[in-house]
Amino acid sequence: MLRHTFIHLPGVGVHRERTLWKQGILDWDHFLKAIEDGVLRQGVHESSVPLIRQSLDAIAVGDVGFFHNCLPGREMWRLYSEFASQALFLDIETTGLSPHYDDVTLIGALGGGQLALFVKGINLDQFPAYVADFPLLVTFNGSQFDVPFLRVHFPKARLDQAHIDLRFPLASLGYKGGLKSVERSLGVSRDAAIHGMDGFEAVQLWHSYRRGNRQALRKLILYNLTDVVNMVALMETTIKLKQIRTAFPGEITAREPLAAMKFDAGGLGPWIEQTLSSWGRD
Questions:
Q1: Domain 82-278, CATH number (from 3.90.1150.10, 3.20.20.80, 3.30.420.10, 3.40.50.300)
Q2: Whole-prediction pTM value?
Q3: Degrees (nearest 5) of the Cα angle 200, 179, 199?
Q4: Buried b vs exposed e over 49-83: b needs ≥16 C-beta within 10 Å?
């Protein structure tokens, strides 16, 4: 969808973007050709030519940050299909709701098709080096909770990336509420062991683990990583529904294989066991 986007141009909103599409100007190459052929009034659109060329260059070199600076926040979902391989799905667990008084206990992530886990007292200090490699974050309500929390606890970590917070595009499509509620509405399932579990129980599990209950850590990790892997399905649903909502008249071809980002939720148990064993926490 990104290559068909014009709302990052000066003076172009949703309605003018649709007008361009109706004129047969479906992507940036068409736009440049229309300017060259005089199809578009140069006085109105010629000033956008440098930005269009910069957009093409940014995609060519994988510069997600360029679009972070010029694309409206509500339209960040358009980045994903083009930059899926550079995206990091992220979710955190904490001991409470205040970043200044509560701790980050666990961070789950999925980037480049690989899961990663950071646990307080084991390897949490490795998170800043890890997150620095990803120019695009995907979260659910992360702009309100996860990222502000992480900024307090990791002030030197790179957390200024382009950010797709799925809560907002999904809400605009009518799917409002918390992550689990949205999952249920869209038919995204969870393991029976964590069905109905919420953030309050996650805090209790952490304290139980700290008192010596290793099974509590396993369940907490499963809960966290399920949030992470389920966001991939929510991301794909968001893209499909938002593309329909935009009323784009042409065919959209994803440049990145979205399926490559998926991690089979059924494989979480073995992955968790292998990871804990490597840490000597089995």
A1: 3.30.420.10
A2: 0.93
A3: 10
A4: bebbeebeebbeeeebebbbeebeeebbbbbbbbb
From CA 94, how far away is CA 229, in angstroms rounded? 19
Q: Are strands 136-139 and 104-111 parallel, antiparallel or unpaired?
A: unpaired
Q: What is the DSSP string of 67-91?
A: HHHHS-GGGGGGGHHHHGGGEEEEE
Classify 165 as helix, strand or coil: strand
Whole-angstrom distance, CA of residue 256 vs CA of residue 268: 24
- Note whether 162 and 68 are within 8 A (CB): yes
Region 207-232: what's the mean pLDDT? 95
Domain boundaries, the chain: 2-61, 82-278
Structure tokens at 28: 């940036």
pLDDT tens, position by position, 149-170: 999 999 999 999 999 999 999 9
DSSP conformation letters of 12-61: --HHHHHHHHHTT--SHHHHHHHHHHT-S-HHHHGGGHHHHHHHHHHHHH
* 90 neighbors 107 (Cβ within 8 angstroms): yes
Widest Cα–Cα separation across the chain? 73
